[in-house]
Fold this protein.
Amino acid sequence: MSDKILNVLFLCTGNSARSILAEASLNAQGRQRFHAYSAGSHPGGTVNPFAIELLKKNHLPTEGLRSKSWDEFATPGAPHLDFVFTVCDNAAGEVCPVWPGQPITAHWGVPDPAAVEGSDEEKRRAFLRAYTELSRRISLFANLPLQKLDRMALQKKLSEIGSSQAES
């Protein structure tokens, strides 16, 4: 990997919670090395308000975050993708578009905080758990010595990051 800014796409089904949290987190942690995007296979069209609330509480920018289809990233003129991560089990099992340039892919499944039922406080805790797990994985990813790893070694590291659980 060179010193160019690397494009990363986080995928989920609805693109309203986990993939949005991951996009905002990597853009904040990326130290000018990454540009993160998010999309969904069946986007709901809106970003979950608990996701926006959590990002703002953590002083992360929310401008420009929107629920969108992964089809936007498989069209001519779309950003060249270097990495594609699925953050929900449903999206991981779906047939993805063919991404030009064969980006490195990995599955980083995280329980869906938007599916949690209960009080607003219980929902906020679920969003915080998802954000914490994604943020930890993103930190591990952002600190990998990408230029020193070949494609197979990098794929192995990304899979290991995705299979690790957040510390409670």
In short: The chain is about 35% helix and 15% strand. The helical segments are 18-29, 49-57, 89-93, 120-142, 151-163. Residues 29 and 139 are 7 Å apart (CA to CA). The chain has one domain: 6-163.
